[in-house]
Design goal:
The complex is a heterodimer of chains A (181) and B (75). With 181 residues, chain A is mostly helical. Helices cover 72% and strands 0% of the residues of chain A. The chains are: A mainly alpha (181), B alpha+beta (75). The interface between A and B is medium-sized, with 17 and 17 residues.
Chain lengths: 181, 75
């Protein structure tokens, strides 16, 4: 175990794996990979739309059909569903996010299964997840697909989305401090 | 006499640890130490950053994998 003790105090290990990168480095990496995504798949980066497709595939796997759902009625949506998960760039990207996040926390030896503190926390998490998911689909994008990809595609819609996101965040944090702290 | 107060932020995600820390520090006197227990790595970026910006003395101790104790001395 001597090796790991030595590694723990190694400057380069700390810099690259343990400590958080500066925000600017994160911004540059995100921008770079947005370009890579756009160039290689023809679409800007999106996260939550993929999750809706995962839901559709899951529903199909248990015998359901989404073919008559308005949301999946476009030829593009149908084609994506026909091609399947393995041929969907967005699915690979989302899997990459999950695996990458796990890897990053393991490399920093920061992995921990957290305890649920209260029933309130569970209610808030479930309610928050449902609202975010529903909102993201109604707005045809989340803070990645609609905000980040919208703005980087020089679309006004991204800025409009951002404005309302800011308003939502202000109201949300007021509610948070009122009901949670 | 300066006192030491412990704040349990285990299992809390952003921005809860930061808001709780702000509120707890408000109640303390100069020289008092607030020990914040955190197990959310993102909070380990924004809480020390905020405290240092306020001019407080901050020390970080990693107590276990993914668990930290933040010692903030109010200035």
């Amino acid at each position: 175990m001597k090796f790991f003790d030595k590694l723990k105090n190694n400057e380069n290990y700390k810099k690259w794996f343990k400590d958080a990168f500066p925000y600017v480095v994160g911004a540059l990496l995100l921008s770079f990979f947005q370009i890579v995504t756009f160039a290689s798949t023809g679409n800007p980066w999106g996260v939550s739309g993929v999750l809706a497709n995962w839901g559709a595939w899951l529903f199909r796997a248990v015998g359901g059909s989404v073919d008559n759902w308005y949301y999946f009625s476009t030829p593009g949506a149908q084609a994506t569903l026909q091609r399947g998960v393995l041929m969907d760039p967005g699915s690979w990207r989302n899997i990459g996010i999950i695996v990458g996040a796990l890897l990053a926390t393991l490399l920093a030896s920061g992995f921990k299964i957290k305890k649920i503190k209260s029933g309130k926390q569970v209610v808030a998490a479930v309610l928050g997840g449902l609202l975010m998911g529903y909102g993201a689909r109604i707005a045809a994008g989340c803070n990645i697909g609609a905000l980040y990809s919208g703005i980087s595609s020089l679309s006004v819609s991204g800025w409009v989305f951002g404005l309302f996101l800011l308003g939502g965040a202000i109201v949300g944090s007021k509610l948070l401090t009122k009901f949670f702290l | 006499m300066a006192k030491e107060v412990t704040l349990d932020c285990m299992g809390e995600a952003c921005p809860v640890p930061l808001i709780k820390t702000e509120k707890a520090l408000e109640k303390l006197e100069k020289g008092d130490v607030l020990v914040v227990q955190i197990d959310h790595s993102c909070a380990m970026k924004n809480v020390p950053e905020w405290a240092r910006k306020q001019g407080h003395n901050v020390e970080i101790e990693e107590v276990d994998d993914g668990e930290w104790e933040l010692f903030i001395e109010k200035v």
